[in-house]
Automatic annotation (TrEMBL):
Organism of derivation: Bradyrhizobium centrolobii
Protein name: histidine kinase
Transmembrane region(s): 299-322
UniProt domain CHASE: residue ranges: 142-232
Protein keywords: ATP-binding, Kinase, Membrane, Nucleotide-binding, Phosphoprotein, Transferase, Transmembrane, Transmembrane helix
Cross-referenced InterPro entries: CHASE_dom, Sig_transdc_His_kinase_HWE
EC supergroup of this enzyme: transferase
């Protein structure tokens, strides 16, 4: 009996120890998984918010860049921008044109506002108090036009925001720094309106040093914060820059309100900082569930089950060991997946930023001051179409490269049916494909202008060769337009010259030259093959497509 009791006691003690060990392990694993999931969800949310804010700041910069020699007293300055603004499909509340008016322009501005059909044409303060125009000695900022126009917004033109603490400070900073600036959170449209943020981009005429006015976009704060997700693991709050110890939070209906944070309040699970309008904004994330309590409850259940089946401690030990191994592998797979996902997102962000930078450069160079809008529009659409086609080709190949002949077969190349293409069917890297696609578009888009007036068309040849020994091969590309001359061929645009002479050669690490012969126009590009095919980029992309396997 004593021996049996000793054995039973030993088995019971072993069962208690194993049950306690299992409970401890499960507690740690549940806690680790919850923390990993919460941290990953917070990182994804912060990244989405930053991308959203970047898009909206880009809209303000692009809109301000579309102005050409603005007349500050015109009440319909947004007319040319309406289609472009709505093409972005953003969620702004109001887009406005705020002109910086000199004292001698105020009377004309009042007449222009009245002539545009706005009900109140008087120049007044931001809270609708009249201004004695004779007492104005310095330029003031007056709202002259806005979009969309409704019964509520039609009463806003004519207001001066110099004495508005929030908007006035925003405009003053934008005027000094000459870049887009975001305001503090402020009620929009009316005193009890939804809380939002305004971003102002200065419009500086060519040759001027001071802005003629500002293009503004206002957004509701809830949509910028991406708060209305009932299934998320956390709630998000924005630190109020106007007051220490307060936060801006949104309810399920998207209504933003201010709450004070006491010293004994629970600390946020994490904080993230995003940039918008020339300033940093801090987000606080609060977990909706108590991970530690849930992990403790899970551990208690496991321990209770272990205590109840102490007679089967060996089986329980095997079961727990098996589950520990399975959970460990799942954690390893999940951690590996999270790392892979982070690397993919970082790579995607890098590529998207590069594409956005190229598109921004295309838009800026194409829509330069003094350019013909019809011609600029066609060139802009064509260049962006060329970028879109090469991105589509890269997506189809999982960014493993594009066949060089495939760039000529794309519909984005003008007069592709008159181009005789020859050369080895090599696959160029993603970076080289983007540069070469724009290069081919620029060459093709300038090849037909002059001779079309006399009913002729140039015959075009595009050929490339690869020379040299293995490891030191050289890529040679030659574009030649016959039946053309310097007198008949349209001159390359500023953007085209930069692309032909500098951007494309530098992107490929090579050199380029262009010249006219007696019967043709020739463009030649020479670059090392190792930069044209870029195997390091291809190897890096291949790693993202490999399956995630648990560590052994």
């Amino acid at each position: 009996m004593v021996r049996l009791g000793f054995i039973i006691g030993f088995i019971a003690l072993l069962g208690i120890l194993l049950s306690g060990l299992a409970a401890y392990r499960v507690h740690d694993q549940e806690l680790a998984l919850d923390r990993i999931a919460l941290a990953r969800a917070i990182d994804v949310h912060a990244s989405l918010v930053q991308d959203r804010l970047t898009e909206r700041e880009l809209l303000a910069r692009v809109a301000s860049g579309l102005f050409r020699a603005p007349s500050v007293i015109k009440p319909n300055m947004l007319e040319p921008l309406r289609s472009a603004i709505y093409a972005f499909k953003t969620d702004f509340v109001v887009a406005g044109w705020i002109a910086r008016l000199k004292p001698n322009e105020l009377a004309a501005a009042q007449a222009a506002i009245a002539g545009a059909g706005f009900p109140n044409s008087k120049i007044r303060t931001f809270d609708d108090k009249p201004i004695d125009l004779a007492s104005v000695t310095q330029p003031i900022d007056v709202l002259m036009d806005l979009e969309p126009r409704s019964d509520e917004t039609m009463t806003l033109p004519g207001r001066s925001y110099d004495q508005d603490q929030v908007r006035g400070a925003m405009l003053a900073r934008a005027r000094v720094e000459k870049r887009s600036v975001a305001s503090d959170p402020v009620p929009l449209l009316r005193g009890n309106g939804p809380i939002g943020v305004i971003v102002a981009a200065p419009v500086i005429p060519e040759g001027a040093v001071e802005p003629a006015g500002f293009v503004t976009f206002s957004y509701e704060l809830a949509s910028l914060m991406l708060t209305n997700d009932d299934l998320s693991l956390f709630s998000v709050a924005l630190k109020d820059p106007r007051k220490d110890g307060s936060e801006l939070v949104a309810n399920d209906q998207g209504v933003v309100s201010t709450r004070m944070v006491s010293a004994d309040a629970p600390a946020p699970s994490a904080t993230r900082t995003v940039s918008f309008g020339g300033r940093d904004w801090q987000f606080s994330y609060y977990a909706k569930t108590n991970s530690a309590r849930r992990a403790e409850q899970t551990a208690i259940i496991v321990a209770a089950i272990g205590f109840a089946i102490t007679a089967m401690v060996c089986g329980l030990f095997g079961y727990v060991a098996y589950n520990n191994l399975r959970l460990s592998r799942e954690i390893q797979v999940r951690i590996g997946f999270e790392r892979r996902l982070t690397a993919v997102i970082d790579e995607l962000n890098h590529r998207v930023k590069n594409i956005l930078a190229v598109i921004q450069s295309i838009v800026t160079r194409t829509l330069r001051h003094g350019s013909d809008i019809d011609s600029a529009r066609e060139l802009l659409i064509g260049r962006i179409h060329a970028m879109s086609n090469v991105v589509s080709l890269l997506s189809e190949s999982q960014w493993q490269g594009v066949k060089l002949k495939g760039l000529f077969e794309a519909r984005a190349i003008p007069h592709a049916d008159r181009i005789a293409v020859s050369g080895p069917d090599i696959a160029v890297s993603a970076r080289a494909a983007q540069s070469l696609s724009l290069l081919f578009f620029e060459l093709a888009s300038h090849s037909d202008e002059g001779l079309s007036l006399v009913g002729k068309h140039p015959h075009i040849t595009a050929n490339w060769t690869v020379t040299g020994e293995e490891g030191e091969e050289i890529f040679h590309f030659r574009w030649e337009e016959f039946n053309t001359s310097q007198a008949t061929r349209r001159a390359d645009s500023d953007f085209g010259l930069i692309l032909l002479d500098r951007v494309a050669p530098e992107a490929l690490g090579g050199t380029a030259k262009r010249f006219f012969t007696d019967v043709s126009y020739v463009y030649e590009l020479t670059a090392p093959m190792e930069t044209v095919i870029d195997m390091t980029e291809r190897d890096r992309t291949e790693k993202f497509s490999q399956p995630v396997r648990p560590a052994r």
